[in-house]
């Protein structure tokens, strides 16, 4: 896992004036909106006895701990301890960590790291969010897999005919070869363009109506933005679809992918449920194979696995990640915190 980046950690619509816990980077955070509607992000652990502040309540833009009622400002400073006499000074160590946040492109972005503001990598541009011709849908799903494997799955052009044979990838089986392609450097990322020449009508699902039964051509561009964003642009002549996904590293073995899919065809809102259903079907196909991979984390050395030319983009991702690990931007797991986070994730799974 990497520090010193902005992480899209939740949809904007999911954060209200009720405290909400999110688990990210093996740690627990609490998000809420103050009286002005601004998002506040704090460490979800009271400095007193470690209770989850997300179980507490808000008062005038501050949050109270559910255990002993300690009150914390948006900057993490403790301003009241109810059990103390009014004249008793509040210990300096009572304060908790607060985090910079931005609200952009329908996401809440949290910066985790120690870089000064002027040196921080930017939030990548998502121009389709302002394009009135592109209709969005929002969805998410969870995988019991390391986020590095989930990212590689999204970047991999060679798995389509095998993994997605029963959805959009049916036509690839006629010729599953991936032509050589060039990986380009982007600002804080990488990209490539690939043309699929033997793409034919899917077997089922909403896309069946938009592809001719004869051979056609699919132009695709795949982009990765550090630390965890993939963008897949698909142009099949009769329409264009763009899939953004932020692959949230919850803990070492859990990833939540929060997605915005844009399309410029069949843009009726009543059709959104059809696209969401199909998207989940495709996601389940990926989930089955991704959760089976071992080791869970992509290897640190390239020689640990076998590579072919079609792996150029995923290899570029590995090299980019290694670059920032070598700069000291990697995060070490705190086992105690990790165990707590994994327990929280299990509880969330039961709730759903």
From TrEMBL:
Database matches in Gene3D superfamilies: Naphthalene 1,2-dioxygenase Alpha Subunit, Chain A, domain 1, Rieske [2Fe-2S] iron-sulphur domain
Superkingdom as given in the UniProt entry: Bacteria
Keyword Manganese carried by entry: no
Pfam families named among the record's database cross-references: Rieske, VanA_C
Record has Iron as a keyword: yes
Domain Rieske: from-to ranges: 6-110
Molecular function GO labels: 2 iron, 2 sulfur cluster binding; dioxygenase activity; iron ion binding; monooxygenase activity; oxidoreductase activity, acting on paired donors, with incorporation or reduction of molecular oxygen
InterPro entries registered for this protein in UniProt: ARHD_Rieske_2Fe_2S, Cholesterol_7-desaturase, Rieske_2Fe-2S, Rieske_2Fe-2S_sf, VanA_C_cat
Keywords of this entry: 2Fe-2S, Dioxygenase, Iron, Iron-sulfur, Metal-binding, Oxidoreductase
Identification of the protein by name: Aromatic ring-hydroxylating dioxygenase subunit alpha
């Amino acid at each position: 896992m990497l520090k010193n980046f902005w992480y899209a950690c939740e949809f904007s619509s999911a954060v209200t004036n009720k405290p909400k816990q999110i688990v990210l980077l093996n740690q627990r955070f609490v998000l809420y909106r103050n009286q002005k509607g601004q998002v506040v992000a704090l460490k979800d652990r009271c400095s007193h006895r470690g209770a989850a502040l997300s179980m507490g309540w808000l008062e005038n833009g501050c949050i109270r701990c559910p255990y002993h009622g300690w009150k914390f400002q948006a900057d993490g400073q403790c301003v009241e301890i109810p059990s103390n006499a009014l004249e008793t000074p509040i210990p300096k160590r009572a304060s908790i960590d607060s985090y910079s946040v931005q609200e952009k492109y329908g996401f809440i972005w949290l910066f985790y790291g120690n870089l000064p503001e002027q040196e921080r990598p930017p939030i990548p541009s998502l121009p389709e969010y302002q394009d009135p011709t592109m209709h969005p849908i929002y969805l998410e799903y969870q995988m019991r897999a390391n986020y590095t494997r989930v990212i590689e799955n999204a970047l991999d052009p060679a798995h389509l005919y095998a993994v997605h044979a029963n959805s959009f990838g049916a036509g690839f089986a006629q010729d599953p070869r991936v032509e050589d392609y060039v990986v380009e450097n982007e600002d804080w990322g990488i990209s490539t363009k690939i043309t699929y020449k033997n793409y034919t009508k899917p077997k089922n699902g909403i896309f069946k109506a938009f592809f001719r039964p004869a051979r056609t051509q699919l132009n695709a561009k795949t982009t990765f933005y550090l630390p965890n964003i993939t963008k897949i642009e698909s142009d099949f002549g009769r329409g264009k679809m763009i899939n953004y996904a932020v692959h949230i590293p919850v803990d070492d073995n859990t990833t939540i992918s929060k997605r915005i899919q844009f399309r410029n065809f069949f843009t009726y809102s009543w059709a959104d449920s059809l696209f969401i259903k199909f998207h989940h079907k495709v996601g389940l196909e990926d989930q089955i194979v991704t959760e089976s991979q071992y080791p869970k984390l992509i290897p640190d050395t390239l020689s640990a696995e076998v590579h072919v030319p079609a792996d150029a983009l995923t290899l570029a991702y590995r090299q980019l990640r290694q670059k920032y690990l070598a700069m000291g931007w990697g995060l070490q797991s705190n086992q105690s915190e990790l165990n707590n986070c994994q327990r929280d994730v299990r509880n969330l799974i039961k709730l759903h």
